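#structure-requests
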Amino acid sequence: MMLGCCMAGAVGAAEKPLRETDLQEFRGQYALADGRILTVTQHRKKLFVQMNNGPEVELEPAGKGAFMTRWGGLRVEFDQRDNGNVAGVRLSGPEQVARRQD
């Protein structure tokens, strides 16, 4: 799966700005069913995803616990529990589910 495409994505303008600490729980590695690893990193107030050793792709907020690539080709929805811990992530475009590894 490539981490990009050509579809336009909309980001909710009414969403409150994210702080660096809001993003910390999303960082980590997630194992996809096909054996690939999705790595989520944070640089200041931005999240990035990387598939295996491919390029990092910036994510933009798209709702509570949800992010999209700037061009809308990939939607990343985190399974965040009430205590703030993230158990996994769902990728849409095409959809895949990954379990957290660390």
